[in-house]
Specification:
Largest sheet: 6 strands, antiparallel
Structural class: alpha+beta
Number of strands: 14
Strand order of the largest sheet: 8-7-6-2-1-10
Shape: elongated
Keywords: Membrane, Transmembrane, Transmembrane helix
């Protein structure tokens, strides 16, 4: 009798252990399933974000920073046409800045040696309808007037157009370099720091020597003729 009772207890204990094992295995299976589901969701979100950015749509992860993204399309020509969508944090003022004279290889032009055109706008003008942001387009065009052809830089933000004559043209016939912001994808910039959109400048320049017979090349690091467009936050209103 005692032997049968002991055997029954061992069987019950064995059944309980098997139940625990099955429960543990089920829990592990659920955890793995959830992890795989989370990974698939994250992969889908990344693919969706990448697709939206390829279509030129802003995905603002940090609303406290400036965000820009180039806008693709059949009209896009990196030599003469550039377009970005721009987002700026609410409550800030932004200067759209342009210089057409001596452009440095890095940093901003020297305000003492250059005239810098500024147009101050509220950040709300850039926000637009998220996630698209504000469209800012720039085109390098040739215009003829009174028998004279001159280069202009046309700005448009969807509401107005400004045509700016280029006193120092840097076209395809001259050796030049062009730096385009976010040409490889979306870019963010900390609030308070200038964000360069476009920089085109001569890569080399020859000047006549005093005797008029030879020329010398100005070092590339020296500010050279060209034009430059950038955004400069002015802080909270």
């Amino acid at each position: 009798m005692n032997s049968e009772t002991s055997k029954t207890k061992r069987i019950k204990g064995l059944r309980f252990s098997l139940g625990q094992l099955l429960g543990f295995m089920l829990l592990i299976a659920l955890l793995i399933s959830n992890l795989l589901l989370v990974q698939r969701v994250r992969d889908s979100e990344r693919e969706l974000t990448q697709l939206r950015r390829e279509q030129g749509k802003l995905v603002v992860d940090d609303p406290g920073q400036m965000n820009i993204i180039p806008v693709p399309g059949p009209q896009l020509d990196w030599r003469s046409n550039w377009s970005w969508r721009v987002y700026a944090p609410p409550g800030t003022k932004i200067d759209i800045c342009f210089c057409n004279r001596l452009i440095p290889a890095d940093g901003l032009p020297d305000e003492k040696a250059n005239y810098i055109w500024r147009n101050s706008v509220d950040a709300e003008d850039f926000i637009g309808s998220l996630p698209n942001g504000k469209l800012l387009s720039v085109s390098l065009v040739k215009k003829s007037k009174n028998g004279t052809t001159k280069s202009y830089l046309d700005f448009t933000d969807g509401d107005s157009i400004l045509s700016y004559p280029l006193e120092h043209d840097v076209d395809a016939t001259r050796a030049s370099t062009t730096e385009v912001a976010a040409d490889d994808g979306q870019k963010t910039s900390e609030l308070g720091k200038p964000l360069v959109l476009l920089r085109r400048r001569l890569s080399i320049q020859e000047e006549p020597m005093p005797d008029g017979t030879t020329s010398e090349r100005i070092p590339f690091q020296q500010p050279l003729e060209g034009f430059m467009l950038w955004l400069e936050p002015r802080g909270k209103r």
